[in-house]
What we know:
Elements (H helix, E strand, L loop, with lengths): L7 E6 L5 H15 L3 E6 L1 H10 L4 E4 L11 H10 L1 H22 L3 E5 L11 E4 L15 H11 L5 E4 L22 E3 L22 E4 L6 H13 L6 E4 L12 E4 L2 E4 L4 H9 L3 E5 L2 H10 L4 E3 L5 H13 L3 E2 L7 H8 L12 H11 L1
Parallel strand pairs: 1-2, 1-4, 2-3, 4-5, 5-6, 6-7, 8-9, 8-12, 9-11, 12-13, 13-14
Antiparallel strand pairs: 10-11
Amino acid sequence: MNMKNNPRVLVSPLEWGLGHATRLARLIRILLDQNMEVVIAADGLPYNFLMLQFPQLTFVRVPFTQVSYSTSRMGFFTKLLFQIPAIMLAISKTRKQVRQLAENYNIDYIISDNRYGFSHPNIPSVFISHQLRPQPPKTLAWVENLFCRFHLRMIRHFDYWWIPDYEGKENVTARLSHLPWINEKIKYIEPLSWLDQDWPEEKLKYGRVDIVFLLSGPEPQRSILETKAITLLRDSTFRSLILQGLPHPAGEESQSKKEGNCIIVNHLPGSQILQYLKNTQLRICRAGVVSVFDLAALRLPALLIPSDGQTEQEYVARHLFSQGYFDYCEEKDLSLDLIDKFSRKSFKTFPKPEGKALAEAMDRFFT
C-alpha cells in the first residue's frame, strides 16, 4: 500500500441504533494497525460505544438528525418518507460540518458508514452500506427501482462504495446490496464483525446461560422487544442473558439486574459478548443486518425477529430462513414453544471471512 506516512482518516457511523458503529470498530482497528491516525465523528450511542473501544483517539460530536419511527409496516415506511425533507436538510448541513472538520484536523481520507453527507469534494471518501437497493413494502413494490436510483444518486459523491457482504450467490443481503448491473465503485468486502475470533478465551462474567438475547436498533422497537423478552423468559426454565445494547459512557461500569431467570445487562465488552455467543445453544436477536453479519462471520445461527415495519429486516430474515442459515419469526409470534422448536433445528453456515476482499478494497482506496 503506497500512501503518505500516517494519513489521517475521518470516520463516522450513522446514529441508527448501534450496528453501524460496531462494524466500524473492526475497520478502525485495522486502520490503527497500519499506522493511520483516526478521528471519529459521532454522537449518541455510537459515540459512547466507540469511546469505550478507542479512548485514546480524537472524538468530535457531530449530531445526526433524529428520525421518529412508527411500529406498523406501512406506518414505518410512510413516516420515514415524510421526514425526507428534514433528512436532506441535515445532509446539507453535515457537508458544511465535514468541510470544517477536514480543515481543523487536516483530514486525508473519509470513511462514512451510511452517513450520506460525510463526503468532501477534494478528499477521497468511501461509503459503507449493506443497502444499495432499499426494499419498500409489498404494496409499494412498483417504486423499488425508483428508490434504488434515488439512493444511488444520494451517494454519488463518494469515490467508492464498500458492501460488507459476500459477492457470490451465497450472501446475507441478496437484492438489498447486489445490483443487476455493474458499477465500478462497488467493492464487496465480506461481513465486518467487531467480534474478533482471535480474542483469547475468558471466564463468563455471569456464568453459563441457555439463551443470549441481543437487543439493538432504534427506539421504540428496541424497548418493545426488551419488554417482551423479559416477560417471556423471566419465569421460564431457560437461564437467559439479555443484552440491552445500551453502552455506557466511558469511565462508567456496566449495569446489570436480575428478574427471575433473566440477567439483564446494558452492555458488555466485545470479548465477553463473543464468549457468550460461542458458548450458548440459543441466540435470539433483531434481524438488523449488522447483527446478522456478526453472527454470519462467527458462523453461528440465531432466531431472528424483524422489527415491525422495517422492510429491510423482514426481507433479510425471510431470505436467510429460505436459504437455511437462520430461523425467524414475527415479534407477535415469539413464544417459549417456538424457542424450543428452534433449539432442535440445524442450519447451514457461511464461510469465514478471510480479509482478502477488504485488504484489496483498502489498497485501492488508500493508494
